[in-house]
Specification:
Helix content is 40%, strand content 18%. By secondary structure, the protein is an alpha/beta fold. The chain has a single domain, classed as Alpha/Beta hydrolase fold, catalytic domain (Rossmann fold). The protein is globular and about 45 Å long.
């Protein structure tokens, strides 16, 4: 466990293990690096494996500024630069996918070996010409209200919706603890930003090898989102995890780890 300063008064928490090509796991909105604990033992056998808490998430500094996908991508770039990482593999889950795409948009692909996208749309918003989006304006307003007035109960339901099967009491407890670490004001700010970013126009510009991992039983992000990404990202392949919802790296961790590893080895 360690911290690195990416901006004055902003420190990112990370856990690192192993040697070799660096692979960085980037979590979703409100989540943390703790959700990737089943990846660390496996990938650290072959790779320099890094689990990262984004700004204001998990154990990283909670700040009331810079809570946008664009700034999170800048933080990621600063982290990679300060650590001297080369030829990195970026794994982005949910909002983490937006951070990966924004990183590529801002800083290019020169230092990126490959990317893995886990259960995310080109945009979460249901735009007039994008009917597979997850949220319309009414849903977003409702979520923003719940975060401000009824957060714990709302997030209990939100966490349940991420999994195909019922969570154990132990898992439900630690997950709720993680997603309520940040102040509600920050939670609202990043929810709004990550819900309206739109990478549809950028997808065809991505040339780095891309693996798309989607759960068959997703309750919010449809498998159609993965099909859409595969059609629009030139060098991509889609894998469906038949016994997962939003978190195949937890629900089918063994298969997920082997699938991602095989993809990386194929690209080498």
């Amino acid at each position: 466990m360690a911290f690195i300063e990416v901006e004055k008064d902003v420190q990112l928490y990370y856990e690192e293990k192993g040697q070799g090509r660096p692979i960085i796991f980037i979590h979703g909105v409100w989540m943390s690096s703790r959700f990737f604990t089943r990846q660390l033992p496996y990938f650290s056998e072959k790779y320099r494996t890094i689990l990262l808490d984004l700004r204001s998430h998990g154990q990283s500094t909670h700040v009331h500024n810079g809570n946008t996908v664009s700034v999170y991508a800048k933080d990621l770039h600063a982290f990679i630069d300060k650590q001297g990482l080369k030829d990195v593999i970026l794994v982005g889950w949910s909002m983490g996918a937006f951070v990966v795409w924004d990183y590529l948009k801002q800083f290019g692909e020169d230092n990126v070996h490959s990317i893995v996208i886990v259960d995310e749309l080109a945009s979460d918003f249901k735009w007039p010409d994008f009917d597979i989006g997850a949220f319309d304006i009414d849903t977003l307003i409702a979520f923003m209200t719940e975060i401000q007035t009824n957060r714990s109960l709302f997030l209990q339901g939100f966490l349940t919706s991420m999994f195909k099967d019922e969570l154990s009491a132990r898992d439900a407890n630690w997950m709720l603890e993680e997603v309520t670490k940040m102040p509600a004001s920050i939670a609202s700010a990043i929810l709004f930003d990550q819900s309206i970013v739109d990478y549809r126009a950028f997808l065809p510009e991505i040339t780095v090898p891309t693996l798309l991992c989607f759960g068959r039983h997703e309750k919010v992000i449809p498998v159609a989102a993965g099909v859409h990404l595969e059609k629009n990202i030139p060098n991509s392949e889609l894998v469906i995890f038949e016994d997962s919802c939003h978190c195949p790296f937890i629900e089918e961790s063994g298969l997920f780890n082997k699938t991602v590893d095989a993809f990386i080895q194929k690209v080498i």
